[in-house]
Design a protein that fits this description.
Largest sheet: 6 strands, mixed
Number of helices: 8
Number of domains: 1
Helix content: 25-40%
Shape: globular
CATH class: Alpha Beta
Number of strands: 9
Distance between the termini: 38 Å
């Protein structure tokens, strides 16, 4: 079963074509990575799939119709810095329409999962970059969505926090979540079941990490040159 889909997706902003006939289809339970330089269209693609942007042409899933089944951790920190960890979690539980007891039970498990139990009384704005990203993930998972979109979740995070965050993502993947992750780090998406490489809104390569290594041996070098 396909859980995440972009079928011939075109999205323009004025005269700029941000996405140019993008196709991808992520089966249930798989972890896919979208890689590309800044401006390649990664964020636009994830926002279209999440139903936050309307596509010009093409089809997306889950989109608006499936948002209840979707968790979306957007790029950057979008939680409330003047609220504590616990208050942010309670707020987003209410946004998702969870009963307070269910939200509290889910939060307890997720905070422990993310290593944030001891920071529940800390202001979110005073957390380290890595902890902020973990809290964003916790809030995205409160309603236990089977589909998760992650938009460059480790950008600006120290190397140790990157590894810890990836441990959480891989744990979710093993537990059966369907994950689509956008990243500017080629070494990160090599952990994925499949990689989609975007350049100026177009898919220029797609396949398993081994496939891409074999068919496009200079792909990583070209990518590193492009972002340097």
């Amino acid at each position: 079963m396909i859980e995440i889909l972009a079928d011939g997706v075109v999205k323009t902003f004025g005269s700029t074509r941000a996405l140019d006939r993008v196709d991808l289809a992520v089966p249930a339970g798989e972890l896919w990575g979208v890689v590309g330089a800044d401006g390649a269209g990664k964020t636009t693609l994830l926002r279209c799939i999440a139903g936050l942007l309307r596509v010009d042409t093409g089809k997306v899933l889950p989109g608006q119709a499936g948002q209840a089944r979707l968790g979306f951790a957007q790029q950057g920190f979008h939680l409330y810095p003047d609220l504590t960890v616990e208050e942010n979690v309670a707020f987003f539980g209410a946004v998702y329409g969870l009963h307070p007891s269910a939200a509290a039970a889910n939060a307890e498990e997720l905070l422990a999962f993310a290593g944030l139990t001891d920071r529940r009384s800390s202001l979110a704005g005073q957390l380290s970059g890595g902890m902020k990203q973990k809290l964003t993930l916790v809030c995205s998972l409160l309603h236990q969505p089977p589909v998760l979109l992650l938009d460059e979740p480790t950008t600006g995070v120290d190397p140790l926090s990157r590894l810890e965050f990836w441990d959480l993502v891989e744990h979710l993947h093993v537990a059966g979540s369907t994950v689509l992750l956008a990243s500017a780090y080629f070494d990160e998406v090599e952990r994925c079941d499949r990689i989609v490489y975007l350049d100026h809104g177009r898919v220029v390569a797609s396949g398993t990490p081994r496939d891409l290594r074999g068919e496009h041996p200079t792909l990583e070098d070209a990518f590193l040159e492009m972002i340097s």
